[in-house]
Write a structure and sequence with these properties.
Strand content: 25-35%
Helix content: 40-55%
Order of helices and strands: HEHHEEEEH
Number of strands: 5
Number of helices: 4
Length: 135
């Protein structure tokens, strides 16, 4: 990691930690955290802003930001959309037990449709989360 990348990582981490403390309706999986930390600073800041908008306005955000993917095996799966120049970042999430939005997985979108593998990965992460956090 170069000095510039290291500085960028610190900026993203600081911004993410600062915003995450303010979020009232968002839970972020380790996978999403790691993904955000791997992004370019400018892209990461925009993704964090999108998450903050989700926390503030929920799924009432315009389709440019939030899109309902579908009811897949009984799971209402959504995608949070962030665009920065030619980068299309996506975070798959659910409304978990009606209490908060659980951000499951993140990826850079390169095709028109959400890849099936990403949907399957999000469902697997949700199941792991539920088994680790049984009430």
């Amino acid at each position: 990691m170069t000095k510039r990348q290291s500085r960028g990582f610190k900026v993203i981490r600081s911004c993410l930690e600062e915003e995450a403390h303010k979020w009232k309706h968002i839970a972020v999986t380790e996978e999403v955290m790691t993904y955000i930390l791997s992004l370019d600073v400018r892209v990461a800041v925009k993704v964090i802003r999108s998450i903050t908008l989700l926390d503030d306005l929920g799924t009432q955000l315009p389709d440019d930001y939030v899109h309902f993917i579908g009811n897949i095996r009984g799971i209402r799966l959504w995608e949070l959309r962030t665009r920065f120049h030619n980068f299309y970042e996506r975070i798959l999430f659910v409304r978990h037990r009606g209490r908060f939005y659980l951000l499951l997985s993140a990826f850079r979108k390169t095709t028109d449709k959400v890849p099936r593998e990403e949907i399957e990965r999000a469902i697997r992460i949700l199941r792991e989360y539920d088994s680790d956090n049984e009430v």
